[in-house]
């Protein structure tokens, strides 16, 4: 089974775009930073940090 893990580090544009740090994504590196938009990315699960 293949997959990768990402952490959302910043949300902008009224929640329509976000910055991520991801492992094993399309850049082929162990860790890379991305700027994503909500309509292009399917979020499969979400774990929230409890403050």
Oligomer: single chain
- Structural class call reads mainly beta
Number of helices: 0
- Radius of gyration (CA) equals 11 Å
What portion of residues belong to β-strands? Answer: 35-45%
* Unreliable stretches: none
Taken in chain order, the helices and strands follow as EEE
Largest sheet, in brief, is:
3 strands, antiparallel
Question: What is the typical, i.e. mean, pLDDT?
Answer: 79
Strand order in space, largest sheet: 1-2-3
Give the helix level as a range of percent: under 10%
Please tally the β strands and state the result. 3
Q: In one word, what is the shape? A: globular
- What separation lies between the terminal Cα atoms? 33 Å
Protein name: Peptidase C51 domain-containing protein
Organism: Enterococcus faecium
InterPro entries: CHAP_dom
Chain-wise SSE layout:
Layout: E1 5-12, E2 17-23, E3 32-37
Kindly describe this structure.
With 51 residues, this protein is mostly beta strands. It has a domain at 5-35. It has no helices and three strands. It has strands spanning 5-12, 17-23, 32-37. The chain has a three-stranded antiparallel beta sheet with strand order 1-2-3, with no helix packed on it. Strand 1 (5-12) and strand 2 (17-23) form a beta hairpin. The termini are far apart. The model has no long low-confidence stretch (mean pLDDT 79).
């Amino acid at each position: 089974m293949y997959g990768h893990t990402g952490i959302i580090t910043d949300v902008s544009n009224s929640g329509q775009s976000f910055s991520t740090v991801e492992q094993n994504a399309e850049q082929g590196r162990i860790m890379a930073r991305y700027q994503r938009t909500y309509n292009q990315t399917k979020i499969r699960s979400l774990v929230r940090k409890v403050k």
